[in-house]
């Protein structure tokens, strides 16, 4: 609302000097005060006078001279303006602040505040000239009212000082709060309409911010006079300044809120995909998450999709280490690092496990004349736990088979043999670790059943002859 009032007044002031029926003011040199001024131009032309107050006719509101070497004509009409023709933008701001914090501001009621304010304004509008107090009219330069000058300067400095975090941009993660401490110790002078911000003890506390850009505006205003500050100018007379309130000081803080995501894909090292290798299980692996100082933060468990996702970690550097492998897999000994940044809020890691595997050696022999000999070209079928044939293997010329088997239970069945020899019984192999296993297998010659010959008895021969005779009759 205050900004709107200043804007409307400003618009009226711009229009006023060019409106034929605009309201005018007149001013006069009022009471003398107990100080004397010397004013020396850049060309060493000296003006000196007893200090006097300038006031508006009718209201007696005090004003300040902003053209130190131009006289005031009390019969001249003045028009209000916001752009005095003899001042730069920077000079307008400074003299406005001197007038605001000078005479009549709070406890500045002594006329000395008018005297020092006028000197400070002249030094601003004409920095190449010399303005000072004297001990008498056209007397010796003296130093006066330095404490008052310093107080006005301090008030101006504080008013112009913005918080250390003003107009800065900060990046945070969804759900994160942020606390900003003002190194300039002025934030308590400001207010904000945002219900997401609390100002307390020289800090601002921001929470519950929305995704995307959050622009928070802070404002400081000093409405001590409850009226605007106005410049006046007229023809052939010096320009003037009437004390009033300054425009509010504002600044913004931009908070950009993003979502972050850490995604881990668990893969089998041999196959380079996320499928379980045999009966081993990628799911169930557990990772420990650490911060940049290796403090434990969270444990992440790989699910049945062989992934795990963690959302909205704060920006920063992190470490991951596997502390439990999935069933049938070797523990990954590596430590992984990653960093979440506003530029890279999403991190996806492919992390591998080596399935447990061991070398199985089959040493196949057969017994001949009590001697064991290598048995070549003997085949075995290997079945998994579901009785599915996974491989057929054959002994070499030394009767040896070497095969790598991954985690699980297997059955070996002999399917061929040396003629005349038996086969071994089907047996089980269990792979639970990486320790190699060896089996010595022996086949034996098949035994022929024992048989004995008998001649026919005499009785059987006689009966055979009788039967033969009857057959011939």
Defining traits:
8-stranded antiparallel β-sheet, 4-stranded antiparallel β-sheet, 473 residues, rod-shaped, alpha+beta, 5 helices, 15% helix
How would you describe what is shown here?
With about 475 residues, the chain is of the alpha+beta class. Helix content is about 15%, strand content about 40%. The strands form 7 sheets. It has an 8-stranded antiparallel β-sheet. Strands 17-16-19-20 form a 4-stranded antiparallel β-sheet, with no helix packed on it. Helix 2 runs antiparallel to helix 3, helix 2 packs across helix 4 and helix 3 crosses helix 4. The chain starts with a helix and ends with a helix.
How would the global form be characterised?
A: rod-shaped
Kindly provide the radius of gyration, computed on alpha-carbon positions and rounded to a whole number of angstroms: 52 Å
Low-pLDDT runs = 1-21, 468-473
Count the strands? 29
Work out the helicity level.
10-25%
| Number of helices, where a helix is a run of at least 4 consecutive DSSP H or I residues | 5
Kindly report the spatial arrangement of strands forming the biggest sheet: 4-12-13-3-2-1-5-6
Span from first to last CA?
A: 151 Å
Q: Given the helix and strand composition, which structural class is it?
A: alpha+beta
Write the layout of secondary structure elements.
Layout: H1 2-15, E1 27-40, E2 46-56, E3 62-65, E4 79-81, H2 89-101, H3 112-125, E5 130-134, E6 141-142, H4 146-160, E7 169-173, E8 178-181, E9 197-200, E10 203-206, E11 212-220, E12 230-234, E13 237-242, E14 249-258, E15 261-268, E16 286-290, E17 296-301, E18 307-311, E19 316-324, E20 335-340, E21 346-353, E22 357-368, E23 371-374, E24 379-383, E25 389-394, E26 400-406, E27 408-414, E28 427-431, E29 437-443, H5 458-472
Parallel strand pairs: 7-14, 15-21, 22-29
Antiparallel strand pairs: 1-2, 1-5, 2-3, 3-13, 4-12, 5-6, 8-10, 9-10, 11-14, 12-13, 15-18, 16-17, 16-19, 19-20, 22-23, 22-26, 24-25, 24-27, 27-28
Helix pairs in contact: 2-3, 2-4, 3-4
